[in-house]
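Aim 2 progress update. The chain analyzed this quarter is reproduced below.
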Amino acid sequence: MLLTALVYFLTFIINLIFSIIPEIPNLPDDLINSIYSYFDLIINNGLHLIGLFIRPSTILALLPISIAIANLEYIYNLVIWLLKKLPIFNIK
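Predicted structure tokens:
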């Protein structure tokens, strides 16, 4: 209930701020196309820049290993839970 009141208060404040600001006109199409091409250039060159230092095959090999290491505690708890459920191992 408190969280709901906080969210309503924040939306009220945001709506109040935007109602004070006059309506902003639309941007020209040329400017929007320039912005899109700029972001495409940044993303594509950023991926190629990473490719200069690390081979993509190395990234593909290390990605599952890093995910497994990050979740090692959960994997360990799952294995212990499964071993405790099987009566043949007699783990308490």
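The mean pLDDT is 87. Residues 84 and 91 are 5 Å apart (CA to CA). These observations will guide the mutagenesis experiments scheduled for the next reporting period.
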